[in-house]
Amino acid sequence: VQVVESGGGMVQAGGSLRLSCAVSGLTIWYLTWAWYRQTPGGERTLVARLRWMDNTEFYIDSVKGRFSITKDNAKNTIFLQMNNLKPEDTAIYYCNEDPPDRTFWGQGIQVTVSS
């Protein structure tokens, strides 16, 4: 299984980015996928989750109303639309199952939000 995140970069506060997570080696539609993030010296934490069985979305409080997790089963890709970005969103973002499979961690993608 290979997981490749893309779409990160540097934006000013209030800007938007759309992250993509291309998965190969397994079919994503029957699995619950999530986005995680990690800051320097911090732990990798859950940001958003999309349940496979009913497409129920979960977001941590700090990103509710600003982030949106979706997926394209045909493309085996998970997305994270991030709007109204804040400097505290700066982190490396990863996608993985929820709960995460330790063998699925990709390289992650850097998101930097300047004030």
Key terms:
115 residues; mainly beta; 6-stranded mixed beta sheet; 0% helix; 50% strand
In short:
This protein is mainly beta and 115 residues long. Helix content is 0%, strand content 50%. A hairpin with a 6-residue loop joins strand 5 (45-50) and strand 6 (57-59).
What do you see in this structure?
By secondary structure, the protein is mainly beta. 0% of the residues lie in helices and 50% in strands. It contains no helices and 10 strands. It has strands at 2-6, 9-12, 17-24, 33-38, 45-50, 57-59, 67-72, 77-82, 91-97, 109-114. The strands form 2 sheets. It has a 6-stranded mixed β-sheet with strand order 2-10-9-4-5-6, with no helix packed on it. It has a 4-stranded antiparallel β-sheet with strand order 1-3-8-7, with no helix packed on it. The chain is globular, with a radius of gyration of 13 Å.
Map the helices and strands.
Elements: E1 2-6, E2 9-12, E3 17-24, E4 33-38, E5 45-50, E6 57-59, E7 67-72, E8 77-82, E9 91-97, E10 109-114
Parallel strand pairs: 2-10
Antiparallel strand pairs: 1-3, 3-8, 4-5, 4-9, 5-6, 7-8, 9-10
